[in-house]
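debug: dumping io for the single-chain case to check the tokenizer round-trip. Nothing else runs in this session.
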Amino acid sequence: MFDMGFTEMMIIGIVALLVIGPERLPGAARTAGKYFAKLKRFVTNVRADVEQELRADELREIVAKQQEQLDSLKQAVTDVGKEVNEAVGDVNQDINEAGSDWHEVVADINENGGVKHKQAHDDILSQMNLQDDPETAATPATASAESNKTQADSAASSNDSKPKAETGS
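debug: decoded output
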């Protein structure tokens, strides 16, 4: 606080001895010591309060920064949630469309033996030049379509043979 060396203290002590006198000097020294101690405690308390306020300000800044980060994180989670909900909606729509297409295919197979969809499948394959590709020739879709055609042909041939057998009797 005060930058006083030993020589300055000696000069103050000699002046105090001459001014106050030897009888009242010990009491004056005690009183001066008490006031000096009070002053020192006051300065220490003020310094502690200032440091505490500085730390509180730093903590407020840290909390504010973390609140901003938390808000941005909440916004990011909200955005991702919206995107996921949109994706789920798109998937549900695709599933519903595929389900209606599937019902259409099943109805065609039940009504026409799958001829309409077999023709569409063959047209798509021919457009893509994949009919001659040996890998696509053995795909499950092609195999099932060929199986359906074979079953339809065998059913037609058995229907043709029944009237002949009845007329022959």
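debug: round-trip ok. Residues 49 and 55 are 10 Å apart (CA to CA).
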